[in-house]
Amino acid sequence: KTEAGLRADLASQRSQAEAERQKLAADHAEQTAGFKALIAGNTAEITRLKRTSADKESQIKGLIALRDAAKTPEARKVIEDKIKVVEADRTALVTEITGRECLPVQVPLPVLAKWRGGQP
Fold first, then answer.
1. Which string of b and e fits 103-120 if b means at least 16 CB within 10 Å?
2. CA-to-CA distance for 105 and 108, rounded, in angstroms?
3. What interhelical angle do 3-69 and 73-101 show, nearest 10?
4. Which of 1, 103, 105, 116 could join 5 via S-S bond, C-beta 3.0 to 4.6 A?
């Protein structure tokens, strides 16, 4: 090839590389925006779940006070059963909160690339 042909090939390759770089940058920006939206939604849900968990904790404390004031063993048993149900609900909430709090942890790019089939 002539020098002019080689220069044209080089210019074409540079142009193609720049177009690919811009596409990658746009894809990255789109993924970053999606991730930030996901994190914002997740943070709002964690806040809601924590409020619900605190409400359950208050409910448990109220039920414990009722149980302690109950006059008969039967009444205490009924209230104790209610406490167990509310405690189970609260435990499920705490578990979900804990799991959701792990979501924003950044994953190293090589690990993410392997997970996505080699494409970062």
1. eeeeeeeeeeeeeeeeee
2. 10
3. 170
4. 1
pTM over 0.85: no
pLDDT in tens, 63-86: 999 999 999 999 999 999 999 999
H or E stretch at 64: helix 3-69
**How many other CB atoms are found less than 10 A from the CB of residue 2?**
7
Q: Which residues contact 49 (CB under 8 A, 6 or more apart)?
A: 93, 96, 97, 100
SS3 call for 65: helix
